[in-house]
Amino acid sequence: MADLEGQLLQALNDKECIADSGDFAKSQGVDHMAVVGVIRSLQASEMIVAEDIDHFRYALTDESQTYLAAGSPEAQVFAAVGPDGISLAELKVKVPGEAGDVGFKQAMQQKWLALDKSGGEPRVVRKVDSIVDATQALLADVAAGKEVPKADAENLAKKRKLIKPEQWKTYKLTKGPKFALERKKPATDLTADMLAKGTWRTQEFKDYNFNALGVLPTGGHLHPLLKVRTQFRKIFTQMGFEEMPTNQYVESSFWNFDALFQPQQHPARDAHDTFFLTKPAATPSDRGVPADYLQRVQSVHEVGGFGSAGYGYSWKLAEAEKNLLRTHTTAVSSRMLYRLANQPGGFKPAKYFSIDRVFRNEAVDRTHLAEFHQVEGLVCDRGLTLGDLIGVLQQFFSRLGLKKLRFKPAYNPYTEPSMEIFSYSEQLGKWMEVGNSGMFRPEMLRPMGLPEDVNVIAWGLSLERPTMILYGIDNIRDLFGHKVSLSMVRRNPICRLGL
Ligand code: PHE
């Protein structure tokens, strides 16, 4: 091929023009298609200019090739009939098939033959002594590439289908703006070497092909946690819960702990358990926390109220202002409940949920990371009881496919009573802890301004635990963090809860 390219460039250089690439192909003894390949590539490099030459001709069909040798069907039939005539049956034997049928019809139309029905069985007889086989002569002309009268050509092509039209292109070639005897391969990359030697100044670079299709992006795969989150969202929304805004990882200790009646000397508020921020280390309490509410929180911690004795210690504003990475999404719930209590038009019952990231200063092992996701639900309404909490939990967990539940008394600073939730795993044959729950304490709700008869039932669980069970992942570091294999993310199936 490279050779053919060289020959073509040489010929063009010698004669300034190649009048017809078809003739050039013949002179080189190669197929014209091979020359076309070379033309296209040289054209793309602007080394030559190619002008189309359109060609048209008729060619014989396979059937008409045989008539070129043996005579047209009508001539074959005329010959078979002979001077004495012949019966139709005999004619069919002598000129069988298509040729016999077509030839008989044509010869009758030409009035070369007639059908004599005078003596019993009809006989085919000649009406003329001799004929000229014009069809065969026309086919010979077509085969020789000679021009034939238009009417004859159309009759042979359309009515008798003995010849077929053929169209093709060849090219007139002239030198292009970048003509050269040898192709300079344009560089596809600027190299350090070109820069060092300065050859980039004269180097030809390949044009960008803006029409080239790129590699299909392999993005767009959802992580298992996101799939399970979608399922949880569905369950919550089906149960009439509204999602809380959780897009704030940094919280003040106030919303994360103090508003939840968690005393300031509680061990969870230690730097060993919580990530505190150093920059900025604090959120001034006048930002978003009204002074009267702050005052009521301080007072409930110090001396109690609403039937509580409080903790009896000296509450420090500076401690409440400390910034931290939220340790639970209950920080979001406390903000939302305060808003609910103080919204224009007064309190209205609400059902809220959230699913988002929380952070704990913990030693990392195969089941613990320093960050994970919490799923939290809460119902805020008048006159709610522990029975309501158990009922909602039964509904919620049965939608996950966990129908057998048990509850165990537990402790949270902000709920009373509190219950750990256990579910029986048929797979493992044992009871497993699946969540934590309770009724928010009056020490939390009343300072916010929620009416006395309003209760809040709430529960929380991790998103990771059910995801690991569903996807058969036994090391949390395979699910979340820098060790996660991307192919795991690409391959994992959609999530179906409750099946
Ligand atoms: N905040 C609790 C936790 O971090 C979960 C919880 C939410 C418990 C709501 C009771 C009520 O485990």
How is this structure best described in words?
- With 499 residues, the chain is of the alpha+beta class.
- It folds into three domains: 1-61 and 162-208, Ribosomal Protein S8, Chain: A, domain 1, CATH 3.30.1370; 73-132, Arc Repressor Mutant, subunit A; 225-491, Bira Bifunctional Protein, Domain 2 (BirA Bifunctional Protein, domain 2, 2-Layer Sandwich).
- It has helices spanning 2-15, 21-28, 32-44, 62-70, 73-81, 88-94, 97-109, 134-143, 150-159, 192-197, 224-238, 253-256, 291-302, 317-321, 330-341, 386-400, 442-448, 464-471, 486-491, and strands at 17-18, 48-60, 86-87, 113-116, 123-126, 163-175, 242-243, 250-252, 323-325, 350-359, 371-382, 405-412, 415-425, 430-440, 454-462.
- It has a seven-stranded mixed beta sheet with strand order 7-10-11-15-14-13-12, sandwiched between helices. Strands 1-6-2 form a three-stranded antiparallel beta sheet.
- A hairpin with a 4-residue loop joins β13 and β14 (430-440).
- The protein is elongated and about 140 Å long.
- The two termini are 63 Å apart.
- The chain binds phenylalanine.
- Phenylalanine binds at residues 328, 330, 376, 412, 415, 436-438, 458-460.
- Residues 328, 330, 376, 412, 415, 436-438, 458-460 line the site of phenylalanine (PHE).
- Tetramer of two alpha and two beta subunits.
- Belongs to the class-II aminoacyl-tRNA synthetase family. Phe-tRNA synthetase alpha subunit type 2 subfamily.
- InterPro entries: aa-tRNA-synth_II, aa-tRNA-synth_II/BPL/LPL, Phe-tRNA-synth_IIc_asu, Phenylalanyl-tRNA_Synthase, PheRS_DBD1, PheRS_DBD3.
